[in-house]
Design goal:
By secondary structure, the protein is an all-alpha fold. The protein has two domains: 2-127, no CATH class; 135-194, no CATH class. Helix content is 79%, strand content 0%.
């Protein structure tokens, strides 16, 4: 948690609005600090779960794979909540006001896009790997990836009328995770090496 405190001290004062929510620029900074630290804290558990997911995928145990995937999502969310709570305590802000800030800014379409772009950049920086594969290997892996993605999108399209948006999003995340893990099994690389 020292990293959170240092990052917040480097930022300085976090400005709030009259309703107690954070001004957008300060919310974006605080959220980035929380996401970055939660990602770092989750990294060892993520590696452990990655091994288990790959084992389940190799064994064609789809229920176990989904269970491990969901456990990882839950553990990551708990880590985010813990980091947010610590960060809020440090700047003497109620966690409720942080959550209200999140709700407020996510309702604004352009602000939500900016938040999501920042989140993706943080994840990419945390997951960044140097590409050490040859051009031929990357081309072969790309063909594999695109073939799997097309199949996934066709499956998702067929489920649209039966599933709600939240279920569709979860299925999409699970299938993308499977594609990444299949790349790892087949080519020794994952989706982070394609970003």
């Amino acid at each position: 948690m020292v990293a959170i405190e240092n990052a917040m001290d480097a930022h300085g004062e976090f400005a709030t609005r009259t309703d107690g929510s954070l001004e957008f620029a300060d919310f974006l900074v605080l959220r980035a600090i929380i996401f970055r630290q939660a990602g770092r804290a989750f990294a060892p558990k993520k590696k452990e779960l990655q091994v288990k997911k790959i084992e389940a995928l190799k064994a064609k145990d789809h229920q176990e794979y989904i269970s491990i995937f969901k456990q990882g999502m839950m553990d990551h969310q708990l880590g985010l909540a813990a980091c947010a709570k610590k960060a809020c305590e440090y700047i003497e802000m109620s966690h409720e006001n942080y959550q209200n800030s999140n709700k407020l800014w996510m309702q604004d379409q352009s602000k939500a896009q900016e938040i999501m772009t920042k989140d993706v950049a943080i994840r990419a920086a945390l997951d960044h790997k140097e590409v050490v594969k040859s051009l031929e290997e990357m081309m072969e892996a790309s063909k594999f990836k695109y073939t799997k993605e097309i199949k996934m999108f066709r499956t998702l399209e067929s489920l649209k009328t039966y599933k709600n948006q939240k279920d569709m999003q979860e299925i999409h995340q699970i299938e993308m995770s499977k594609i990444s893990d299949m790349l790892c099994i087949t080519f020794g690389m994952d989706l982070t090496e394609f970003s």
